Amino acid sequence: MSDMFVVSTSPHLRHKDSISKIIWMVFLALVPAGLAGLYIFGPASLWVIIAAILSALVTEALILLLRGKKLRLFDGSAALTGLLLAYNLPSDVPLWIPVVGSFFAIAIAKQIFGGLGRNIFNPALAARAFLLISWPTYMTTWAKPFSYPDAISSATPLNLFKEGGMNLSQMGLSYWDLFLGNRGGCIGEVAVAALLAGALLLIALKIISLHIPLSYFISLGLFSWLFPARGGFATGDILFAILAGGVILGAFFMATDYSTSPLTRKGQIIFGLGCGLFTFIIRRWGGYPEGVSFSILIMNAFVPIIDRFTTPRVYGAKK
Amino acid sequence: MKLIREFTKGLFKQNPIFVIALGLCPALAVSTTMENALGMGAAATFVLVSSNIIVSAIRNIIPQKIRIPCFIVVIASFVTIVELLMAAYLPALAKSLGIFVPLIVVNCIILGRAEAFASKHKVLPSIMDGLGMGLGFTLALALVAAIREGLGSGKIFDVVVIKGYEPATMMVLAPGALLTLGILIAVTNLIKKRKA
């Protein structure tokens, strides 16, 4: 009688998705934006991407060996961190920048906290913050689109907006340029159209949900519209605020990182709203023209407390 | 032999920074350069040894209930001495250490040693304890400062360490201090674990 039943503990329903499959799908979804970046900024950006991914893999292998853990290099997490870091760098940085950045991302931001799934902060963004604070000159020298191999430098639209007080037409750009990526910026953030295509794939596969990105856009758009730097109450340019910086890349691909974002829908909405608010505050009053990476890092720190206060009621339990 | 052990315990086994984790505030704040670290270490060691001597000498006549205020008065007197001496003879160092010299008064290591050691032991062991703890504090500070100054400004004592190195500014800022100290404490724990 007893061998007629399988006795096991939960979970009883299993899905064929694995962590590494999800990570490689995110990687795949990011490829179009990288190809677009390559087309816009030239071969220099390819070297940055290769250097970042390779050094992320080497660091991961080294630390896993030191920690006496199983080498799981091809679960894709280190490669994805390297790719995301490269997407957050200008195309003409010296190649040691992505190498040092990837080392910091994997060794300090990921492995010291316990490795895959245990990190509090998004490793790629932590590394970007480290690089930006340490070597600001390299990290804020942007190549003009399609200027390779001469590599003429140019400012990003957000920089021109903040420091120069220009609007879009004074920059000689249109919304269409911002959408297609014809502007100065990081390798992976400029090609909004390609990023959206990748994001659509992830949403269609249900790898990411829209809660974080949408609430991010809503709060950033709302605050930028209500309190613009110039022009008075409720006259801000919402489309510019969302298209001009790294918000698309940050909201779809970095704020949604599983281990550094809240678990529940309600928590994810709070998380997204907070990201938007902090991005707005940094852009409007902070020392940097762009605040996406710092605001996601700040909200990463809030994730445990958000999770604690948005725990759903257990079915049948009383409040 | 026992005296020597009182001295050596502060260097590694009970290092005030890496093991007991006391006095972290100056360790984080003034470890930006080697000069600051050594100056701070020397000042704190002087106060630590002197206050240990006095506290140990008067330990039997201090009423138990008000012993902490008594310790603070003794410590504050020596800090004032150090502060005035430093302002007179090493004005540049005094300026760069700033508020952290008067703050030695509330340095947990010094009050901690007065409470945990000097108030229970004779003068000679208390001197050895103060010297060892002070030296351990200074060495720990110097180690943190060497890493931070070396990585963060590319030179130690104005001597270029590696030619062509582009300093990582973050290391001389606050996050660099927290990262360095955290990693060094982890290394200390690793060494202790290996030994045990």
Radius of gyration of chain B: 17 Å
The succession of helices and strands of chain B, N to C, reads: HHHHHHHEEH
Oligomer: heterodimer
Number of helices of chain A: 14
Q: How many β-strand runs of chain A?
A: 2
Low-confidence stretches of chain A: none
Distance between the termini of chain A: 41 Å
How are strands sequenced across the largest beta sheet of chain B?
A: 1-2
State mean pLDDT of chain B (0 to 100 scale): 91
Note the beta-strand portion of chain A.
under 5%
Side-by-side strand order of the widest sheet of chain A: 1-2
> Judging from the principal axes of the Cα atoms, what is the shape of chain A?
globular
Distance between the termini of chain B: 23 Å
- Residue stretches of chain B low in confidence (pLDDT < 50, at least 5 long) are none
| Count of domains of chain B | 1
Q: Roughly what percent helix of chain B? A: 55-70%
Give the integer mean of the pLDDT values of chain A.
Answer: 90
Strand-pairing-aware structural class of chain A: mainly alpha
Determine the structural class of chain B based on helices, strands and strand pairing: mainly alpha
